[in-house]
## 1
Amino acid sequence: MALGPRARVLLLAALVFAGVAALVWYLSYGYWSQPVTPLRPPANSAEALTPTPPATPQAGATPQAEATATPAPSPAPTEQTTPSPSPQSLLQPQGGDTNATLASMRLLLPVQGVRAEELRDTFSDSRSEGRVHDAIDIMAPRNSPVLAAADGRVVRLFRSVKGGITLYQLAAADEHIVLYYAHLERYADGLAEGHLARRGETVGYVGDTGNATPGDTHLHFQIYRVADPRHFWTGDNVNPYPLLRGAQ
């Protein structure tokens, strides 16, 4: 007898159900019939309770938290980043340590052939772009020898738009004092950064480089105190005039 559509559907569902039941029975029987291997118990109670000792650091290893970082060296000034000194002005040398330091340096008038009575105080004179001079201009013929005003290390030989050929010197008496020489015609032969210039040693020659008026040959001489000698291009200005007036 032929089965109707409803009977065929029920028969098909019964066959699927029987197949699924058989598969579940087979998997259950196969899993539970496998032998079970028990875990090995500790040899004794002490073994079970003894914690694993912490790892011993290798000899000589430095913990990362205690490692000392080495700072990167301060970049040397460049034409784009290093301005000629333009720090806060001080009309007179400040008291205390600065006065004592400058007195101990016995500054020499830094242009050969110029007498102290010929100097003119230009420290507070105005300059272009609303600037104050913050230095002294020592007038002298071109190529007059420029002398180191004190013992000190030459830290930078630099050519700038305003200062022309310039020289930065850290005074040996206190490396927080900077002597700055600008508008040079040229440096002394063989002069190099790192050289320890002695008081009275020729370090360059008077010129009119930079923004000096052509033919107006002179030395721009500036003194300032820095908080950090590595930042030797900025600090608190000191008027050189009263110091040089008594120079020997």
Note: Confidence is low (pLDDT under 50) at residues 41-84, 86-95.
## 2
Amino acid sequence: MVYLTLCFRAFYICPFMSATSCSRCNMAEFQANISDPKDCKAYKRTLSESDSSALIGRSIGDEIDGIFVSLPGYRLQITGGSDGSGIPMRPGLAGGQRKRMLLSHSTGFRPQRPGQRKRKMVRGKELGPEITQLNLKIIEYGPKTVEELLGAEG
């Protein structure tokens, strides 16, 4: 018996598998890197599937509430991220797809000599289920300190 499974906007035929056993159907979990510009520290936090699904569809530069990363009263800005292959997100590329772009000194490429350009793979600015790492910056502080809320994980 063959089941037809819906996996992230595409149909895959998974022979001899149930609809829930397809490995591509798992929801994304983001590894959030939260930077604190005031203290010059960074904190890591793994977001649950429910918090991750609430962030899907947001873009680089959007502001989110800190409740998603256990920081109530805080406001955070999405500054970037990368997918499971390590391909970085780029603010100038619309959507969430991967694309090969000719880059000079910018996100995704650091030239070795002046004027060097290279065609590199980058991902669009929109968050999707393929993203595994999410970079956030604190822009508005809450009543408690970040150290109290997140602990000494930094």
Note: The chain is about 10% helix and 40% strand.
## 3
Amino acid sequence: MSDEMRAVRHNRTMSDTIHGSPVHDALVERVGAAIVQGEHPAGTRLLTADLAESSGASRSAAREAVRVLESLGLVQVRRKAGIEVLSVEHWNVYAPEVIAWRLDGPDRARQLHELGELRGAVEPLAARLAAVNATDAQREALVAAALGMARNEQRADDADYLAADVRFHRTLLRASGNPMLGMLGDVVQSVLEGRTRHALMPQAANPEAVRWHRDVAFAVAGGDAEAAFEAMSRIVGESDAAIDEAAVAEGG
């Protein structure tokens, strides 16, 4: 992994707080994935002692792992009744961990489609707002990220392209000036990383999509809100269609 990509991942503060010992992290990963992927359906009762024994963790490490899962909305600790697995309505579906577990499981296509719908609603709006609200530094960073994508477009499935792509979209969301949109950076980053991790990204990027990123960047830099909105709408539309096509090919 490149230094640039490490820096991007370091900024994901939402998930940084859950990490503990390797055994603790492995337990969170195993049980969280099992819940999200349906191995432990809603209503299943789990016991801390059983989790500790099955993973070789101490009971204190298992309790801490359960607290992490509870913070993600996956379980609820009930007094004298153990740990109850909760239904999807309770999950923090915006948490990068939950997104990653869904992408790793049989629900991948649905998760990608839902994320695509979210991006289609959010990112064109963010682009329009960024054209008005972005700082000079954010405008420069957006242009630099778009140019970084163009430099690496023949290696779109590599870390350098991914890092530039992530930087572009996180910068755009922050540049909107709306903190609630800015907080969706982790969600969009999870989509982009998942697309690469699951080989849904072609080796060479769609040249039109790369050009549209430049169009957004220069529209934001020039304060053209409608041009930024339109170009960003094309980007998320193309991305959703390309992911759907790749997912169908993978399934076939």
Note: The mean pLDDT is 89.
## 4
Amino acid sequence: MRRGLSIVGLFLATLLAFPQPARADFWDWLQEFSGPGPFHANYKDAFPPNTLVTLCPGDGDVNGRPHMTFREQKGKLPCFYVDFRNLVNSPDQKGGEDNFPNQVKVTAYDFGVAFDLEHRIQVGAGLGFMHFNSQDITHLDQRVIRNRFDITLFRATAQPLQFIPVHGWKEGWKNNKYAGLLKFYVKYTVVPGDLDSSDFGVPTTTSTFHASNDVVFSRGFFVDFGELFRRR
């Protein structure tokens, strides 16, 4: 019990240590780059806007998150994840104080490894790429497309529903795989190389934005379909 509480406390401390938005979308939020942003979940182009598949090694086959007792017998083996996020900024500033004049859509694909701190909390790191789809402000009927490699320096996920106690039910939702479908995440991502305003549809003569190795924080929710394959 003490170990579980200390791990939960560590996760909460980690979350509070990161920058928090003054106004943010409930489902997902990506800190602004040094140029466009902040970004929020793009419900229009995808629903749910964020999806995830987490798979963990089992006894000779692939199973999603077997019980911790089984995992401890096998040793602290890493899990593998693939996640997808769909975000958009708000140049009209209704959803955030954006400093760019045009719409920028970000589709992020990431994959990597994660380790259990406790069967409801994981930490890890990974790689991926971001797809930028921006309105060209000089030709409004055209889009500027860019694909950039990214590195997830730190990523933590928690299964919030499994922490909810249920009256008269000793385990509550702790080992309910359906309660594990919903996951809250925090992550730090770096986009290596140089970015300038032309990568987001704004001429460099209009904006002075330029950044090298931009690091951004994000937090929000995933629907993890990998939980459907875990052992009961």
Note: The mean pLDDT is 76.
